[in-house]
């Protein structure tokens, strides 16, 4: 009986080593209407989820009532038209959650401004619950994929591998410095805007806002 018990424990131990560990499910969602210093209404709605296997899905919608022209060429047939308010929709393909903050990576699939279609966008949010003194916060940024097809190298050195090196720059005299990662020079490896530690981001100064942002990790 004792021999069988030892064999069962060993089998369970081996099974735990071979069974892949599932990731922690994460979710971020919300709707938020706000004004910045330009006194123009902005609106963001988002819903992103990462399942136990690490697959992220979701969508981000953003509206800015500011009417900014998307036409640079004065001879463009649309140059005389009244600029539309900015609107874009992006499909979320990555998310990271740290405590009450989340950063979502997405690709713009539709926009009133054609130059934004295909760009990567990052939305960073902070969930402060029902605390009236500390409202929910957010910020965002756009970045454009660099043209691929080549890897930068020193033409005078056949062994130059500088483009493949990675590092993290920090202040050696400060233990609280979150640091800045090196820029990825190999465009084919890029999958979106560079994601930093969530303590690195600063949020936009909202003059007036209402809505709800929810960040969950379970």
What is the arithmetic mean of pLDDT?
78
Strand content: 35-45%
User: What is the count of distinct domains?
Assistant: 2
- Report the biggest beta sheet as strand number plus sense, adding barrel if it closes: 8 strands, antiparallel
Distance between the termini: 40 Å
> Total number of β-strand segments?
10
Note the overall shape.
globular
Helix content range: under 10%
Low-confidence spans = none
Query: What is the count of DSSP helices, taking H or I runs of 4+ residues?
Result: 1
The string of secondary-structure elements, in order, is HEEEEEEEEEE
If strands are numbered along the chain, what order do they take across the biggest sheet? 7-6-5-4-3-2-1-10
Task: Determine Rg (CA atoms, Å).
Answer: 23 Å
Structure description:
The chain has 218 residues and is mainly beta. The chain folds into two domains: 22-145 and 193-217; 152-189, no CATH class. It has one helix and ten strands; from the N terminus they run H-E-E-E-E-E-E-E-E-E-E. The strands form two sheets. It has an eight-stranded antiparallel sheet with strand order 7-6-5-4-3-2-1-10, with no helix packed on it. It has a two-stranded antiparallel sheet with strand order 8-9. It is globular, with a radius of gyration of 23 Å. It starts with a helix and ends with a strand. The relative contact order is 0.20.
Comma- or semicolon-separated keywords:
single chain, 218 residues, 2 domains, 8-stranded antiparallel beta sheet, two-stranded antiparallel ribbon, 10 strands, 8% helix, 39% strand
């Amino acid at each position: 009986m004792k021999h069988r018990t030892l064999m069962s424990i060993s089998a369970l131990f081996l099974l735990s080593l071979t069974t892949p560990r599932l990731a922690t499910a994460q979710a971020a969602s919300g709707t938020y209407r706000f004004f910045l210093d330009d006194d123009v209404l902005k609106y963001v709605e988002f819903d992103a989820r990462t399942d136990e296997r690490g697959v992220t899905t979701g969508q981000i919608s953003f509206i800015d009532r500011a009417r900014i022209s998307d036409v640079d060429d004065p001879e463009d047939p649309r140059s005389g038209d009244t600029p539309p308010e900015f609107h874009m929709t992006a499909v979320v393909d990555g998310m990271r959650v740290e405590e009450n903050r989340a950063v979502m990576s997405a690709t713009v699939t539709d926009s009133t401004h054609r130059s934004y279609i295909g760009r990567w966008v990052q939305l960073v949010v902070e969930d402060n619950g029902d605390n009236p003194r500390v409202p929910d916060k957010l910020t965002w940024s756009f970045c454009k994929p660099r043209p691929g097809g080549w890897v930068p190298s020193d033409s005078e050195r056949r062994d130059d591998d500088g483009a493949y090196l990675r590092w993290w720059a920090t202040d050696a005299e400060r233990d609280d410095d979150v640091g800045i990662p090196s820029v990825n020079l190999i465009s084919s490896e890029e999958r979106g805007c560079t994601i930093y530690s969530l303590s690195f981001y600063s949020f936009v100064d909202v003059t007036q806002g209402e809505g709800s942002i929810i960040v969950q990790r379970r």
